[in-house]
Amino acid sequence: MLGRNKDEVSREAVIQALSTVQEPELHDDLVSLNMIRDLTISGNDVAFTIMLTTPACPLRSQMEQESMAAVKQHVPAVDNVQVRFDSQVRGDSRIAGKLNIPVKNIIAVASGKGGVGKSTFSTNLAVALAMEGAKVGVLDGDIYGPNIPIMFGLEGKPRVEDNKMVPFTAYGVEVISMGFLMPEGEAVVWRGPMLHKAIQQLFTDVRWSELDYLIVDLPPGTGDAQLSLAQSVPLTGAVIVTSPQAVSVSDARRGAKAFQRLDVPILGVVENMTGEIFGTGGGEETAELIGADYLGAIPLDVRIREGGDEGRPIVATEPSSEVAESIRSLARQIAGRVSVMNRTPDPDLRII
């Protein structure tokens, strides 16, 4: 029993009780991680805020239940416990130093081959994170075949302010793409230095807001674009998208290995278009082959394709559908893994 007596509720006792509650992914207690804020005691009632490391926290309800139980168990005088939540995403410290942009984390979405729905997943991942309350942007890194404008239902050229492009905003997500800058139907044939410069400018010559996550939709394969990105931009991690077929698994494995050779962490593998037509199991096989986590599958559904064609991401237009729920679950897992990678306690998050 951590309380001093049955009739008294002390601040120290409540903090000590909360120090017994583990953050499930960071594997340390909430107090040591400086995640408790705004602790107030009014008579025998206690209230506090848990400062999450991402608004898309997949284990919020677990922490709420365990915190309430810990306080009531260890401080018997407490009658009521109110748990609130707020969030402050912790960032990859390398980004500001190298790129000087107000982005906390850069997540690449990649595949070894085309046709697996990578751009569709990038779009819905970004919208899902934004719907959770995160500040999100999407950078279309597919210089040769930019599809992100179609996915978001955007067209035209971005405004320029102070020599920087202002990204479009759709579904709460900031969006920039070479597709906004190219004449309709024109092909890009850049390689080497020109490609490298174009990719870097999409990061540095854009007036990004203070983003928690910048999702980078990469072209398929393991060519110049991926190499340029990994060498010039501090990638927090990469998500590998595959479909269930053997040929997709083979190509996804090569794509993942390329990132691993470039010391880019693999956040996990997503299997897209799973179901009777294409089968199942490719994502799990890919994850096993590359030694990464399997995050889950997105069922094959014609509404995803229709939403992509119409610029209407399914997580926003049909949020209660099975497909949307699977993507939101994947988004929370990815956000959680980013938090684990940036797990150093934030000195600005103090018990107040």
Please explain how this structure is put together:
- The chain is an alpha/beta fold and 352 residues long.
- The chain folds into two domains: 11-87, GMP Synthetase, Chain A, domain 3 (2-Layer Sandwich); 93-341, 3-Layer(aba) Sandwich (Rossmann fold).
- It has helices at residues 11-18, 60-74, 93-99, 118-131, 148-152, 192-204, 224-232, 246-261, 282-290, 302-310, 314-317, 322-341, and strands spanning 22-23, 28-29, 36-42, 45-52, 80-87, 106-110, 136-140, 160-161, 164-165, 168-170, 173-177, 213-217, 237-242, 266-274, 294-299.
- The strands form four sheets. Strands 10-11-7-12-6-13-14-15 form an eight-stranded mixed sheet, with helices on both faces. Strands 3-4-5 form a three-stranded mixed sheet, with helices on one face.
- α1 (11-18) crosses α2, α4 crosses α12 and α8 runs parallel beside α9 (282-290).
- The longest helix has 20 residues, at 322-341.
- The radius of gyration is 22 Å and the shape is globular.
- 46% of the residues are buried.
- Residues 1-5 and 345-352 have low confidence and may be disordered.
